[in-house]
Amino acid sequence: SGDNSGPTQALRHANNNPSLSSYCLPKGRKPGACPPRPIVAFAVENVQKAQLKQKKKDDARAKNAERLAAAGGDADAAGPDRKARRTARRIENRLEKKRRRREEAPAPAPA
To answer: What confidence tens digit (pLDDT) does each residue in 15-70 have?
Structure first.
């Protein structure tokens, strides 16, 4: 769609148009005072990006379904989910950090 599309024409007509100010009077403001000028905006979604995003989501679901099917339909046999893997990795990293600190700590001086 070109520059003369319906939404673009409506935007150009309404944006900053003082003749439409009666629709946007703030509370406590008198109609005769300096009229406010409405600021109008709209968003246009990029169809190609939306389709790509949907395709990625569908591919991820298909891959997950394949993984579950390979495990015999049992979610536990397919391995831990992302959250469980992340938690396990964090615990492992904390333990490794504690081990390194113990190794690097100087031996206490004899009393």
So the answer is: 877 777 666 666 666 666 666 677 777 777 788 999 999 999 999 999 988 888 88
Asked whether the beta carbons of 38 and 12 are under 8 A apart, the reply is no
CB-based contacts of 70, cutoff 8 Å, min separation 6: 78
The rounded distance, in Å, linking the Cα atoms of 108 and 89 is 32
With residues binned 3-state (H G I as helix, E B as strand, rest as coil), the percentages for the chain, rounded to 5, are 55, 0, 45
Question: What torsion do the CA atoms of 84, 86, 91, 93 make, to the nearest 10 degrees?
Answer: 160
Tokens of 45: 């979604």
Tokens at residue 33, please? 């005072």
3-state secondary structure 63-84: HHHHHHHHCCCCCCCCCCCHHH
Closest C-alpha to 42, from 70, 14, 22: 14
How many CB atoms sit inside 10 A of residue 81's CB?
A: 11
